[in-house]
TrEMBL record:
Region annotated Disordered, chain positions: 1-22
Name of this protein: Leukotriene B4 receptor 2b
PANTHER family recorded: CHEMOTACTIC RECEPTOR (PTHR24225), G-PROTEIN COUPLED RECEPTORS FAMILY 1 PROFILE DOMAIN-CONTAINING PROTEIN-RELATED (PTHR24225:SF72)
GO cellular component, one term: plasma membrane
Biased composition (Polar residues): 1-10
Membrane topology: Multi-pass membrane protein
Subcellular location per the Swiss-Prot or TrEMBL entry: Cell membrane
GO BP term, example: positive regulation of cytosolic calcium ion concentration
Domain (G-protein coupled receptors family 1 profile) ranges: 47-296
Any one GO molecular function term: leukotriene receptor activity
InterPro entries on file: ATII_rcpt, Formyl_rcpt-rel, GPCR_Rhodpsn, GPCR_Rhodpsn_7TM
Family designation: Belongs to the chemokine-like receptor (CMKLR) family. Belongs to the G-protein coupled receptor 1 family.
Length: 359
């Protein structure tokens, strides 16, 4: 994603548009944008840092899902830290950080979009393997494999975000009062560049990942119904909530992306103010990076009174724990998945506390 709208809340535009400059220079829109980003910064940075601390300091045995949540929190927390640059941009209504920072910051924002959805997709695929192929997962999922997959994901993210480096530059603008402002804005010179960048980021960053996620959960829910092992449903809820929340925040942005692509390939034009529509959709997309700490807090509220600041670690241990094999280097499937296979043969086994019943 280009997060172009945060420059300042105007959205990615294929050609220079006077409305872009108006959004920067408008006191009202800039003030609202700066206020929203300030709230996002104050909530997102400490919230994601708390997740990272909870996992690193409080959890000794980290499951696959916990490792993925750790990486997701690092990505979101880093993006929230970058929001300070956009707050300054909106407050001053001119870009003061130079052309290199213009490219780098939007490149990092774009990388965050891909990293978030890819890590969420990996969570869903892991749950699919754990529920549908538990014995295969037991043999294949080692710490070395997990680290390589996560590292490969980050490398892929950095590569496919390169268009945001290419299609972004600082523009100099002079208004009728002879005042000079600098904008960090899209620099598409050809219509095909618009089609490529926004179609690619929507297909690679939303459509394909969500097709995988939806397919995984359809199979998971079907398998859970077949085994009639209801405790598994509890373990799906948190990940499924993350998936749905991310989709709700990002869907409007990608819809506008595809509308713009359609405008570039046809005579179709939307008779509305795209600048402010993009302002809303891109703000929602940015807010998504501070949503997960809130979700985890609500999910773990039953642990807060008893465990205090350790409630988040207790949440991850209680609903996302993997059973460790005899070798310390192995990450295996969840307790409840193993139990669900035993349950069909011996229903009493899964209900005993010794077998990991958390309820």
């Amino acid at each position: 994603m280009s997060y172009s709208s945060l420059s300042p809340l105007t959205g990615p535009n294929p050609t220079p548009d006077p409305d872009d400059e108006n959004a920067v220079q408008n006191n009202y829109s800039s003030a609202i944008g700066a206020l929203i980003l300030s709230l996002v910064f104050l909530l997102g940075v400490p919230g994601n840092l708390f997740i990272v601390w909870s996992i690193l300091a409080r959890i000794r045995q980290r499951s696959v899902t916990t490792l993925l949540i750790l990486n997701l929190a690092c990505a979101d927390g880093f993006l929230m830290a970058l929001s300070i640059f956009f707050i300054i941009y909106l407050a001053m209504r001119t870009w003061i950080f130079g052309n290199a920072m213009c490219k780098i910051l939007f490149y990092l924002c774009n990388s965050n979009m891909y990293a978030s959805i890819f890590l969420i997709t990996l969570m869903s695929v892991h749950r699919f393997l754990a529920v549908v192929f538990p014995h295969t997962l037991y043999r294949l999922i080692t710490r070395k494999v997990v680290r390589r997959v996560i590292l490969g994901t980050w490398v892929l993210v950095m590569v496919i975000s390169i268009p945001s480096l290419v299609f972004r530059d600082v523009k100099k603008e002079t208004d009728e009062m002879n005042r000079t402002t600098y904008l960090c804005a899209p620099n598409h010179t050809l219509r095909k560049h618009v089609r490529f960048q926004y179609a690619f980021e929507t297909v690679a960053g939303f459509i394909i990942p969500y097709a995988i996620i939806i397919t995984s959960y359809v199979v998971i829910l079907k398998r859970l119904r077949e085994t009639k092992f209801q405790r598994n449903v509890r373990n799906e809820k948190l990940i499924l909530t993350i998936v749905i929340t991310f989709g709700l925040f990002w869907l409007p942005y990608h819809v506008i992306n595809m509308v713009q692509v359609c405008e570039e390939v046809s005579t179709f034009h939307v008779q509305t103010d795209m600048v402010y529509i993009r302002a809303v959709t891109s703000t929602l997309a940015f807010i998504s990076s501070c949503a997960n700490p809130v979700l985890y807090t609500f999910a773990g509220k039953s642990y807060i009174k008893k465990n205090g600041f350790a409630f988040m670690a207790k949440l991850f241990e209680g609903t996302l724990s993997d059973q460790t094999g005899t070798k310390s280097t192995r990450l295996t499937t969840y307790d409840n998945v193993r139990e669900s296979n035993v349950d069909c043969q011996n229903p009493t086994v899964a209900s005993t506390p010794e077998n990991g019943n958390l309820e």
